[in-house]
Amino acid sequence: RVRDYLLRSSVFDDRIARLEDSNSEETARGNFIDESARGSIWLMPATGKRDEELLDYQAQLARWDWGSFYEEEAGTAFFDALKFQLRREGFDDVLIDSRTGFSDIFYTATLLLADTVVCATGLNRQNIEGTAQAIGTLINGDNVKAYGEKQILLVGSPIPSSSMKESEIKRRLTEICSEWKVFEGRGFDVTVPYDHHLGLREEVLAMDSDDPFSSSNPYTLSMVSLAKRFEKDVTTSSVEEFTQSDRINPFPAIRIEYWNESDVVNHFVDPGNNIRYALEQFMPTVVFGSRGTGKTMLARWFDFETIAYRLEREGQKPGPENTLQIGLWFRLDIDLLNAFNCDEEGPRENFNLLFGQFLDQLFLRKALKALARLGGLERWLEVTRLCHRLSRELGVAKCDDYATLEEQMDERLWEIRAYINNPRSRSMPFVVQSNILMKTLVEELRKNSTFRDAGHYFAVFIDEYENFHAYQQRIVNTRLKQAKESDRVTFKLLSRNDGIHTYETLAKGQPLETTHDFRHYNLDEGITFAQFSAHIKRVIQRHLEASKYFSRRSYTDPERLFAELTIGDEISYLTGKRGTAPLRQWLNKQHPPEVAGPLIAWMDQEPSLLRQAVAVVLVNQGKEVEGVIKAFREDSPKAKHWYHNYHTGALYWLHSLYHKEKTYAGFHHIVGIAGNNTRVALDLCYAIIENWLARGDQRHLPIDTAIQSQAIHAQSETYFRKLVEKGQDASQIHRFVQRLGRLFEVIHKGPRQSEPEINHFKVMGEIDQEVDAMLQRCRTDAVLRWLRGNKQKSLSDEQRDAWQLHPRYAPHFNISWRQKKGMELTPTELSTLFYGDEGNWKALVKAKEKRYRSVNHKEGNNKQGKLL
User: For 683-741, how does the pLDDT look when each residue is reduced to its tens digit (9 = 90+)?
Assistant: First the structure.
């Protein structure tokens, strides 16, 4: 973590204190001090944080093999990652001190790391020759191609202005520009006068007053001039090339588990829907959501490490006075959970008991770490007394200090792990009373009036709760059921959809009850498109704002960055040189002359191919030809209603007719394909930016729709391929998605489109337990989205749940991601999708094709065809 290697300078602290004093009257009125005046400087020393590390650093540097580092150890990738980490820390500027002259460090600092290179040089020949060579390296064509064009600021320093005529200095500058071609037309951006004070000691001369911009010191004025020039160059540069230093995708393909606290704070967006508010309350809470919906982000936002970071960034010292909820985030390794899952009847009871013991000790250890991080244990309680009590409860030797207690807690945890791995050869570890450790800690904390009166409490966030086995969930459920505000410990569970295997507790007949024992929320199911769209827009904006390239060009709004695909653009893409010929050919082939003739005659006067296609779809359904033509000619309300209902479905049919891949582009499509899943939305953004970078024309913004669609299709293919990696039942799930998507594809290609954009289904009848388990597994893995059955046309209709193929797979099958109408499946048909042989599967496809791809010609007496 970059932050572990940084030291904060206190150079501005006195100045800020004086500023705050001078603004005390404004502060009293409720106004805020200008945050830009709170600037700070941080140092990342090459030698480490301690003086004794200096010698070791020099020895290591002498042995360092730069060639091996770059050729065998991906040195360039390392520095790209370092730059990305520094950006995520939120620094405005990063100043890199490079060694004088040419060395491996010179190339690393200037070519790999820098956006702007400040070349400082004296005016003598030796200095000028070296500077000319350095500039020549930076502007070399091959280097510009490989590393991007650099901003170059040329600084003449030191200039002996006090002892030399100004005309002599100007003449020398002119000579330099004429003798060395790299200086031609460039000149010096800033000249810095010699100051004799710097010959005696190190001083920051530009800090000779609180307002250096009003200083009369010539040296300070030159620094002000350089600062202004630097800000001008880095913010309003005319260079539009996408430089190497900018070539980091603002949507990192990493999981949040690898983020540090600054990443969490900088990118956190409240999901709304009262979820954050609920997590801030003492009431136990359960948050559901498929993988990638932001559960871990929520948990980490409330973790004590993030709380401490937020306070420190605001200039506050963490402590009892500014910390109410103390969040403890846990994610237990699945291998550890499996280790406690004993199948043998004999030791099972001991394993269950020890799992509760193990959890209690983990809670206690992290709670103590949290108090230490949030101001120090001694500010919260009397440490020696706590150690005495806890050592007795743990059954270890009496200790007086936290360090010793921590070692003894580690020893107890090791004893438990050793027993569960070797139950036959080891004796049962010391048994601690259930839940007594946290109770003891809280009792000691409540002796502190601040903790007792302010309402402090611990919130235990258990992430990936779906990995807990049923009996393990019963143990946690019991803790949650017994949570009382007086105990000051509450629980927040985060689980994938359908991930809670049991609501039972250890007390028979006392299960967890929603509302009574906990509040529950869902991050994807039940969230509307509009709600998710507003949320993910803010999330994407956070990432774009962190990118220097996009923020400088004012492309931080995803709706602006990702060019939206209009219907006109898509029709132009479809028709190309072929025009309406394929549609007319299809009409002549599928309909008799008395139907095709009038339609084609009308199409000769109708400029919109999509209106033509909608009219054909209506006739395919069996509607009277003359009535359809008359309605469209008059642009009647009926025609407008038809167009509104069927134009999107007709567009999918046209793609099939023209044998072209469906286009997906624009923020609206990104949101829809994401299916209320934050990670999928960011994956799509990442894929689009990568495809855009690969095209090499970064001058073109917003990003072209063709580039977007190609990337979205490729990402959907990736999701489909990864289905085979989903572990247990992977082959059945992969086959199920392939078959289900194929059925939806058949419907989307249907010429009738009486039920356009079908991408979900209902099961009309009772399904067996095995198929139901597979449905739930698909829901847990976000392969299917559960749609609660809440729409009934009449009271006699049975209310049935529906299952939507996750929209991330829509581009793979060229189908719509929108949730429109559904398809009905029998239990047998659903079983065929999961387990059926090829014969049964082909018969199912044929039946669906017959229903959805047939043309419904009108029948006798010009009656309207009956819709199937």
Answer: 999 999 999 988 876 667 899 999 999 999 999 999 999 998 766 678 889 999 999 99
The token duo for 82 is 């370092």
DSSP 324-388: -EEEEEE---HHHHHHT---SHHHHHHHHHHHHHHHHHHHHHHHHHHHHHTT-HHHHS-HHHHHH
**Crossing angle for the helix pair 581-590 and 609-621, nearest 10 degrees?**
10
Tokens 């690898």 sit on residue: 258
Considering only CA atoms, which of 632, 634, 631, 592 is closest in space to residue 612?
632
Identify the pLDDT of residue 852: 74
Rounded to whole angstroms, the Cα distance separating 430 from 416 reads 9
Beta carbons within 10 angstroms of residue 279's beta carbon: 23
Q: At what angle do helices 470-481 and 345-373 cross, to 10 degrees?
A: 50
For residues 847 and 838, what is the distance between their CA atoms, to the nearest angstrom? 14
Total residue length of the chain: 868
Closest CA to 284 of 503, 120, 553: 503
CA distances from 368 to 374, 459, 652, 689, 794 (A): 10, 13, 59, 44, 59
Contact 670, 563 (CB under 8 A): no
In this structure, what token pair is assigned to residue 207? 């800090």
The model's pLDDT over 538-566, given as tens digits with 9 standing for 90+, comes to 999 999 988 878 887 788 999 999 998 88
Tokens of 760: 């979900």
End-to-end CA, the chain: 62
- Contact predicate 111/164, CB 8 Å: no
Residue type, 381: L
Of 127, 58, 250, give the one whose Cα is nearest residue 682.
250
Number of Cβ atoms within 10 Å of the Cβ of 830? 24
Output the six-digit token pair for 661: 């891949």
Which residue bears the tokens 């438990």? 416
Task: Give the phi and the psi of residue 48 in degrees, each rounded to 5.
Answer: 95, -175
Tell me the CA distances in angstroms from 479 to 229, 234, 332, 504, 794, one per residue in order.
61, 55, 17, 12, 44
Pairing of strands 190-193, 151-159: parallel
Low-confidence ranges of the chain (pLDDT < 50): 26-36, 235-246, 754, 791-797, 858-868
Cβ contacts of 383 within 8 Å, gap of 6 or more:
377, 401, 402
Query: Do the Cβ atoms of 719 and 812 come closer than 8 Å?
Result: yes
Q: What is the separation of C-alpha 861 from the centre of its chain, rounded to a whole number of angstroms? A: 61
Identify the three-state secondary structure at position 458. Answer: strand
How far, in Å, CA of 762 to CA of 777, rounded?
A: 17
Residue found under tokens 């206690």: 364
Please name the residue that has the structure tokens 């209603």: 641
Q: Measuring CA to CA, which residue among 797, 792, 785 is closest to residue 740?
A: 785
